[in-house]
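The data are quoted verbatim here:
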Amino acid sequence: MATLCYFGIDVSKNRLDVAANPDESSWQFSNDEKGISQLLTLISKHSPELVVLEPTGGYEIPVTVALAAEGVKVVVVNARQIREYARAIGKLAKTDKIDASVIASFAAVIKPAIRPVNDDQALRLKATVSRRRQLSDMVKAETSRLDKPYHEEIKLHILAHIAWLREELSRIDDDLKQMIQNSPVWREKDELLKSVPGIGNVLSAVILAELPELGTLNRKQIAALVGVAPFNRDSGAMRGKRMIWGGRATVRAALYMAALVGIRYNPLISEFYYHLLSHGKAKKLALVACMRRLLTILNAIIKHRTEWKYA
């Protein structure tokens, strides 16, 4: 019986470091059209069972899409998982070649589940949502600077920059709305999500772009994926506080704002929040529980394709 082969790819802006497991072969290609073509030729010769990469600020997208287009089983894994795996097997040194070898070993041992690779339309939506978040952060940063004792001329410059940023935000919002309206699938999901009090255009767009698994997982799985599932911290007789950990920070941040709005305007979330407070829960813990409850509701709505109803 032939030994299964697994590939790990460490991606940087200009280079692809590739390693195989278990034979520990390694290669290096440029991260451009020519290098990706050479990588595909290599892949065709070895037929790996699975190829694993880390997210690298978007530099992994061209090679991931190219691999998926060729029918290669490929998955992009959270970098934190890879680093923790490296520490667990005693690989503390860090170079691109070592990282590729660790990723290949991770692929062979852990065998992470394969998720569908986003098509170009989905990648564009995700990039637009990311750009909107950057612009929003810049508006907040510039607005905070107005409180500092700058010269009046500098304040006028800051105000002009804020005005420009807000115009860009408005344009981005129009683009997002148009992209969602142009897709029957996204349009239906958007309407379902926004039927829930507290869910607006921003959170709906974030979920469509960055949580495509919504509706395909059970409530525990989706909560863990986003990072709002509490994990036990027990050892022997010690019982530590349960804490949330990991997950998709951008989705979690949007859920946080939606939960705050939901406490005021969504009767189910509001009742749940004040019920927890009345039983001695701290406000922060109660808010996280509301985030988890809201995510569960959204997951069920998308799964069953039914609008929000409060009986």
